[in-house]
Write a structure and sequence with these properties.
single chain, 135 residues, alpha/beta, Rossmann fold, 4-stranded parallel sheet, 5 helices, 35% helix, binds magnesium ion
């Protein structure tokens, strides 16, 4: 399964832009469940490169930085959903999305693939544990 990750609101909290609690554990689980099929899906990476992402993430733990070098790039223009391979099984972790993005997911019956993050990566770890136990 492919897993797509937003940055602000998932890696960093949106108040002080500090590393989110439980981030390392969450990412370990993401890499595990996706078998390494992890993709950036952030406005910082829409140009298909991770340079700006790493600029924003420069203060996070060194071992996490090492881990996320393996996250793959996506390119999109207007909507994040353009960057998703919707023919494959996927999960998309994000804190805030546009209505048009939700409408698109709904139109293809994939709205359940969106997972809303609300400062709760600990709960997201539980969610991924449940998914792993189901497959
Ligand atoms: Mg966000």
């Amino acid at each position: 399964m492919k897993i797509y990750l937003d940055i602000d609101g998932v890696f960093l909290d949106t108040k002080e832009y500090k590393q989110m609690p439980h981030l390392k554990e969450f990412l370990n689980k993401v890499f595990d469940v996706s078998k390494g099929e992890v993709y950036w899906l952030s406005t910082h990476t829409k140009h298909g490169e991770n340079d700006i992402a790493f600029y924003h993430l420069e203060d996070i733990d060194k071992d996490i930085l090492e881990m996320i070098k393996d996250i793959k790039n996506t390119k999109w223009d207007t909507l994040k959903t353009e960057g998703i391979d919707t023919d494959s099984e996927f999960l998309w972790f994000d804190d805030v999305i546009f209505q048009a993005e939700y409408n698109f997911l709904e139109s293809i019956g994939k709205e359940h693939c969106l997972v809303k993050v609300k400062d709760n990566l600990d709960e997201m770890i539980e969610y991924l544990n449940d998914i792993k136990n189901d497959v």
